Amino acid sequence: MRVYLPATLDELDHLAADGGPRRAHAVTAALRAALPDEDDEGWEFVAQLVAADESLAMLADRPGVPRLRLVLAADVPDESVVPDADPDADVTAVTVLSGVPADAVVCAHVDEPSAAADVVAAVAGDDAAVQRLEDRDLLWYDVSEFGRIPR
Description:
Layout: E1 2-7, E2 22-25, H1 29-34, H2 40-60, E3 70-75, E4 81-83, E5 93-96, E6 105-110, H3 116-123, H4 127-135, E7 139-142
Helix pairs in contact: 3-4
């Protein structure tokens, strides 16, 4: 199953160290039911966007990390993924029970460096900056390119 992990750029340096359960976002039955007119690509995009929003929230709690949203896409065994237990969670929310090993990560989606000012403003509560971030596309990086992601 493809999952989208909200993350921060400092996590790229120690992906394999995180072996415990981890919240992620994915195409779930609840998402398919909520958006029945979408296709697989549309559902995956929604899951990625929700993970990007959660990455922004993570940045608010981690002031010393680069101010860019990061979403890691990973392929994990279906049996290691369960719906998120929080009844208020988004319809895309899942928990990856066994953690996500570094070799399961297939790519990253990252803000371009020019988005940093909007990330800073959004973390500070600027709703207009949040909207500008929602209008931006995240850049795609293959795992072989992680060392080239601007920080």
